[in-house]
Amino acid sequence: MIDGEVLENIRRHIEVINDTSGLNFQLLCAGEPGISAVKVAKTMFSGPIYACAALVGRNDNLSAEKVGMYGESLVLYATKLGLGTCWVAGTYDANSISPKVEEGEKVWSVITLGYATEKTPLRQKMIRAGIRKSDRRLEQFLESETAYEELPAWVQKGIEAILLGPSAVNRQPVNIVYSDGNVCARLRRTDYELVYVDLGIAKKQFMAAACDQGVDGTFEWGDGGRFIQLVGNLE
Q1: pTM of the model
Q2: Cα gap 229→169, rounded to integer Å
Q3: Could you tell me the fold of the domain covering 4-121?
Q4: Do domains 4-121 and 135-229 have the same CATH topology?
Q5: What whole-number distance in Å separates Cα of residue 157 and Cα of residue 65?
Q6: What digits encode the pLDDT tens for the residues 39-61?
Q7: CA 103, 37, 203: angle at the middle one, nearest 5?
Q8: Cα dist. 18→23, 67, 93, 167 in Å?
Q9: Which positions ≥6 away from 12 have C-beta within 8 Å?
Q10: d(Cα 53, Cα 74) in Å, to the nearest integer?
C-alpha cells in the first residue's frame, strides 16, 4: 500500500490543481491490501494498483487540454514522491471506479499510482517495445527554418521531453514551431478524441524541460499557443 503521508500529499496537490484549473480531479484509493483501486488490462499492468486519480473535467477542448496539462503536473509531482505512474485512457474498466461526475463533465482518463516492480514482466516489455517502435524522430517534432541542431538548448530539451512523454496510443500529435526565438505548440493532427489532452501533456513536458534549462515560462491555451517566457531569453 502507499504510505498515508504520501497519499495526503497527493490529495493536497489535487486540491490545488482543482482550485487553479476548475477541473474535478479525484483521488481514489483501494479499500484493502491486494485490491486494486481500478481494474486495468492485465496485458499492460501487473500487480494491484493501490490508488489512482480520476481526471474529470468538462467535455470541451479547453478542458481536455487542461486535463493533459494538470494531469502531467500530477504525474511529475507523484514521481518526485517516489511513486510509479501511468496514464490510462482506454485499457481500464470504467465500471470499476466511481468518481463524482457532474452534468456536463466526463472522465477523460485515469492516472494509476503505485510502486513499480523491480523487474518488468516479459509481456509488458514486449508490449512497450512494440509501442515505442512508432516513435517519431526528434527533428520530426520541429517546424522551423532553423535546423534542430542549431536550436537553443532549452528548445531542444523541450522537444526531447515531448518525445519521451506519454501520448494517447503513442500518436504524439504535437509539433513545436520555432521562429526568431519564439516557440508555439501546434497540433499536426486532430483525428482522435484525446488529441487536446495530448496537447496539454506535451506543453507541460516542454515547460518542465525548459525550466530545467533555466527558462521559466508557460504556454497560451489552444492549438498554436505561444510559449511565454517569465524570465529573459537565455539563448
Answers
A1: 0.90
A2: 31
A3: NADH Oxidase (3.40.109)
A4: yes
A5: 22
A6: 987 766 766 788 999 999 999 99
A7: 65
A8: 5, 10, 24, 22
A9: none
A10: 9
Q: Give the three-state DSSP class for 94.
A: helix
pLDDT for 123-178, tens place per residue? 444 344 444 445 678 999 999 999 999 999 999 999 999 999 999 878 899 999 99
Using CA atoms, how far apart are residues 214 and 132, in angstroms rounded to an integer? 30
Residue 110 β-bridge partners: 54, 88
Query: Is 118 strand, coil or helix?
Result: coil
pLDDT grade, residue 118 (50/70/90)? low
Q: What is the pLDDT of residues 64-106, one digit of tens each?
A: 999 999 999 999 999 999 999 999 988 899 999 999 999 999 9
All three cell numbers of 196, joined, read 487536446
Whether 210 and 153 have beta carbons less than 8 Å apart is answered as no
The cell for 35 is 485490491
Query: Whole-angstrom Cα distance, residue 208 to residue 226?
Result: 15
- Type and span of the H or E element at 52: strand 51-58
Amino acid in position 210: A
Domain 135-229: give its CATH code.
Answer: 3.40.109.30
Domain boundaries, the chain: 4-121, 135-229
Terminal Cα distance for the chain, rounded: 45
